[in-house]
Design brief:
With about 110 residues, the chain is mainly α. It is built from five helices and no strands.
């Protein structure tokens, strides 16, 4: 059995929410079926969401429509995503490239 390394997790934030026991049981069964751990599953979903994964984006848009979020709001979000994707293609920049540009600008401003 491995020992728990508390220092490894000291800067982590906990994400907690409540769920019905039946839904939690269904989640555990599905995770077992897919051979995933709970933390692994939630971290992967969060990463895909904040990184703008297309499948997660489409799922969220569909969810918002089903939850009666304004259709106008959903259209605006979708249009902004399309504009963002087009700009990425046009300038062929990824997040690392953008961070590098900001680092260079910051270094230049510190030097002046």
């Amino acid at each position: 059995m491995s020992s728990f390394d508390a220092d490894k997790y000291k800067d982590y934030k906990r994400v907690i929410f409540n769920e019905l026991p039946t839904q939690h049981a269904r989640l555990l069964i599905q995770l077992h079926y897919d051979q995933l751990r709970q933390g692994e599953f939630f971290r992967s979903i969060i990463e895909a969401y904040v990184e703008g994964d297309e499948d997660i984006f489409n799922f969220i848009q569909k969810y918002k429509l089903n939850k009666k979020v304004s259709k106008r709001n959903v259209r605006i979000t979708k249009k902004e995503k399309e504009i963002s994707e087009e700009a990425k293609k046009q300038f062929a920049l990824d997040l690392d490239d953008i961070e590098d540009i900001f680092d260079i600008l910051e270094q230049e401003s510190e030097g002046s």
